[in-house]
Amino acid sequence: MSNIPTDLKYTEEHEWIFVEDSLGKIGITDHAQEELGDVVYVELPEVGDKIVKGEPFGSVESVKAASDLFAPVSGTVVEINEALIERPELVNERPYDDGWMIVVEVEDESELDDLLTPAEYKKLVEGE
Amino acid sequence: MENVPLIFEKSRKGKEGFKLSPLKVPEIEVSKTLGEDLLRDELDLPEVSEVDVVRHYTKLSRMNFGVDNGFYPLGSCTMKYNPKINEEIAAMSGFTELHPYAPEELSQGTLEIMYDTQNLLAEITGMDYFTLQPAAGAHGELTGILIIKKYLENKGEKRTKIIVPDSAHGTNPASANQAGFDIVNVKSDSEGLIDIEALKTVVDEDVAALMLTNPNTLGLFEKNILEISKILHDKGALLYYDGANLNAVMGIARPGDMGFDVVHLNLHKTFSTPHGGGGPGSGAVGVKAFLRDFLPKPLAAKNDEMYFLDYDIPYSIGKIHGFYGNIGVVLKAYAYIRSLGAKGLKEASEIATLNANYLLKKIEDMFDAPKDALCKHEFVVSCKNWKEEYGVRALDVAKRLLDYGFHPPTIYFPLIVDEALMIEPTETESKDTLDSFADALRKIYEEAKQTPDILKSAPHATPVRRVDEVKAAREMKLKYQG
Hints:
The structure holds two protein chains of two kinds. Helix content of chain A is 20%, strand content 34%. Chain A is built from four helices and nine strands, in the order βββαβββββααβα. Chain A is globular and about 35 Å long. Chain B has helices at residues 30-34, 50-63, 84-90, 93-96, 108-125, 137-154, 171-178, 196-202, 225-234, 255-258, 267-270, 327-363, 384-390, 394-403, 431-450, 452-456, 469-474; strands spanning 129-131, 161-165, 182-186, 207-213, 238-242, 262-264, 285-287, 299-302, 307-310, 379-382, 410-411, 420-423. In chain B, the strands form three sheets. Chain B has a seven-stranded mixed sheet, with helices on both faces. In chain B, strands 10-12-11 form a three-stranded antiparallel sheet, covered by helices on one side. A two-stranded antiparallel ribbon of chain B has the order 8-9. The longest helix of chain B has 37 residues, at 327-363. The two termini of chain B are 24 Å apart. At the A-B interface, loops of A face helix 17 of B.
């Protein structure tokens, strides 16, 4: 069974976000990395780029497939995980930790309300 | 069988594979005629003798696996046997020695075949005009989408979106994106067909077209195609047919009658020319009459006296291939269509479908598969139960099939099916072959239960064992680094 931390919010496309002081750290879930298989490449936006809720902000490529990364909220990218360029396997090894992807300055925190709770996300994963 | 060293590793300084007669004129330094700046010496070409070269490549060819070696049920690729008569016809000197700049009066034979092939394909698909230029399927898609784009622009419409189903070939969104469109995904319903209600919510005045394969990548016929066509056309959008799966419906159903406005065919798949090695292929594109003026230039045409190349295509998207396309492939497709005839093509589709259903019935009890469902020319089963019960994945099953002498099916596609095996037997395989493939799968199923490690470390009988795909993708080395 995949790991679903209780302090995060989730999207239906299997991204997670952790928000503190208007900064949102974003990555993909344990379930997502498991489904994708070994990640071989991660394409991320640049610091300063705007991302829009529900739209792709990058992509992740595994041996099996390439998938878009969807923004859980709108905002401005303030940091990206440079380590993933050299070590994309971090996404598989520690999806909620060293495998994070970007940090954004969240524009409108009320957008978080539409996201899935850990319980709702668990239901989604189990239903698949 | 031993592993073969690279041709570079066979290189010995000073070895040559040729010897020219002594010159009767004074030798001139190349640098003086060509210019110093155009010469480079960093190319590290192997230095080998003729016999080295012949043995090296003959050895490699014996390690290869193709439809001439054995069963090749690679789903969505239609790896049918290619009759050798096609090769003989395409190799006739009247065709091979024709220069593309030869005047039309001297090219009548080839022009006639181009013209006839355009018309035969139009008849088979229910379209009005065909171009033979695109080099393969994805190139055909790009051509078709550019035609749609130009048509809409010409009408003064700026539509920005193309819809593709979540079961589509990856080339569909890639081609549409290449042509400058945004991609909108539409989900499949529980039967594996396009979800009509979901489709209705995404079709608006900003949609240029829907790209669809029918039968789709699950091997299912989109039975609501007429309703889908109406939903698109009511909003002024067009319908694009990816012909990858035409092998299921030749002589039975025509994309043109289903409401499609543009189609591409993979002549190298459906019409039986060797493929899978990177080309050449042919992705002929057909359109309804209202799109004729947007096709690439030129089309093969005919007037009272002769066949000619018609450049009078007012809104043409331009040329998309040197000269007239991969004519060798067109010739083989022509030979195939003519030798089978209308009746034979229909029979080919019927047997392709019969073979797929026969094989599905023989193996479905081992897999997560919709039971008692009928498929078209191919089907998808899931190894999800193998993974959950024995820890064995679709990849392991595919690798183990190599040990039994079969080319594996397509795996992990379509993306909407977990641990997918996508199997397309084609019409050219006998019942004996299908039975032995089913037997091999059953043996592998038993191995998965008893000795799963045999699968996880497969293949064992091939010159190259399990390759590390992750390392290969993460640390790409695209050329010899000696």
